[in-house]
Each structure stands twice: as C-alpha cells, then as structure tokens.
Design brief:
By secondary structure, this protein is α+β, with helices and mostly antiparallel strands. The protein is built from 6 helices and 13 strands. The protein folds into 2 domains: 1-166, Thiol Ester Dehydrase, Chain A, CATH 3.10.129; 168-274, Hotdog Thioesterase (Thiol Ester Dehydrase, Chain A). It has helices spanning 18-21, 45-63, 67-71, 145-151, 196-205, 209-214, and strands at 3-7, 12-16, 26-31, 75-86, 95-106, 109-118, 121-134, 139-140, 179-182, 215-224, 233-243, 247-256, 262-272.
C-alpha cells in the first residue's frame, strides 16, 4: 500500500493513495498523544470518537460528498447515531489504524462502518448513521444521488456491526439527579451547534469517578435527537440498569433546562478492569 503522510492540528495520520481508496476500505493511522488519553493513560472514548469523525470527513472528501461539497447546495452532514463495541483502548504513545467505508442506506440514513486495529488485532468495531440536512430549515432531506452512488463500490464489504438503528434506549425520569453543562463557544462546530463528541464527553464526565477508576468502557450506543445551540443549558443524567461482578450497563440522557426536551440518549457498557 502506498501512503502519504499528512499532519493536521490534532493527529498524525497516514492514508492510502487515491487509486486504491475508491473501491476499498479507507484507512488512517493515528498516533495517540498525551492530550488524547484519560486519567488511566488510555485513549479516551471522546477522542476515539473524534478520530472516527475525522476519518469519516476525510473519506467523504475523497468520494466527493464532503461537507464542503454539500454546502454548495445548502446542505450538510449531521451524525444521528453511533454504535461502537470496544475490546480495549491503547495507551499514550501507541498507534491505531482505523478502517472506514460507506455501508449503505436505511431510509434517510447514510451509514458508515469502522474497524479499529491495534498491534495487528481488531480492538473496536462500529457503525454510524448520518443525515443530510437542509441548512436553513434544519431538517433532514432525502439522501442525494451523489451520496447513494458513492456507496455502490463498497456494497460487498461485510458490515462491522449488524444494527438497524431501531433499538430504543430507555427514557429516564426528568426528576433524576443530573449535572448541568452549558454550551459554550468552543463546543460549537461548523454546523453552528454542539459537536457530536461533546455529547460523549458530557455523559462520560457525569459518571461517578469510581466507575472510571474500576471499569473500562466496552460499548457505547448514542442517539442524537435534537441539536444543541450556543448558550443552551443542558441537564445530563444517568441510571445503572444492570450490574454484576464483571460489568455495568448505564443509560444516559441529555435534556434542555428550559423545556425538558430530550436532545440525546445513550447506553454504555463498562467492563471491570483486571
């Protein structure tokens, strides 16, 4: 595989030459820096999601369906759901290789899958569902033909995860205890709303510190319901729904302070650290 090395502000990455990525999985190698890890020196799940979103954008550029391409028609990409199954997250100084490819369409959703490899072993697999929105109306639209056509060369690749995104996540009582977060300037992305990985950061930070000391995240399934705009005050809550000697299952919810509408729901699974 011939490669070119690029440097951006967050990561070093290596990607395939353009003559191979049009019909195969697109892959990027990421070096895990000191600012990518948590208190246990493992790659933080929020930063893993940042890398996954980064490679999604890079591949969409190659396929001619990037945010910039969509913006010409007053459209943009937004993430609607992501589901990751995690065996382990490497430590500072290590490198991971992420593979990604478009994995078809389901209604208004354009889907994209991921495999993360470390030391020649698969450590994460995942899938995601994306919507194309009308920027002015802030509403999803039918997937443009250019995007549908860009998926065709990848149709025979085996899915990373079988998930039709129809599974419902439990709704929590709004009287549950919560932490309050404000949507600040640095939380806002190019779509002028809170970036998707900030939701992940909020739900992880809301948990008791003892969970982070004793457990590693093994799965996250997150559903983005409504966008969050600048200066919004949000309530983030969670509830343990299952616990045994080896793992904990937690459901999470982000609601607005003013009208109590649900903006995000998630389920995480945590594995006892050995």
């Amino acid at each position: 595989m011939s490669c070119n090395i690029y440097i951006n502000t967050s990561y070093y990455y290596i990607h395939n030459s353009i003559n191979t990525i049009m019909t195969n999985k697109y892959n990027v190698e990421y070096k895990i820096r000191s600012y990518n890890v948590d208190m246990n020196q493992n790659l933080a799940v929020k930063n893993l999601c940042d890398m996954i979103n980064d490679i999604s954008g890079l591949h969409s550029e190659v396929l001619g369906v990037s945010v910039d391409d969509l913006n010409r028609d007053n459209q943009s990409w937004v993430l609607s759901r992501m589901h990751l199954v995690i065996d382990k997250l490497p430590q500072r100084g290590k490198s991971i290789c992420i593979d990604t490819w478009p994995s078809g369409s389901k209604g208004l959703y354009a889907c994209r899958d991921y495999i993360v490899n470390y030391d020649d072993k698969q450590i994460v697999k995942g899938t995601s569902a994306w919507l194309v929105i009308d920027i002015d109306k802030r509403r999803p639209i039918k997937i443009p033909e250019t995007i549908v056509n860009s998926q065709i060369p990848f149709a025979d690749i085996e899915p990373a995860i079988i998930d039709d995104f129809r599974g419902k996540i439990e709704t929590l009582d709004t009287t549950n205890s919560f932490k309050t977060y404000n949507a600040n300037y640095t939380d806002i992305d190019f779509n002028k709303h809170v970036t998707a990985t900030k939701y992940v950061e909020w739900i992880v930070n809301e948990l008791d510190i003892d969970i982070h000391k004793q457990y590693d995240i093994a799965e996250i399934d997150i559903a983005y319901k409504l966008e969050i705009i600048l200066n919004s005050e949000m309530h983030v809550s969670s509830k343990i729904t299952e616990q045994n000697n080896d793992r904990i299952i937690i459901v999470h919810q982000i609601i607005s302070d003013d009208n109590k509408k649900i903006h995000c729901q998630a389920k995480t699974v945590w594995r006892k650290r050995v």
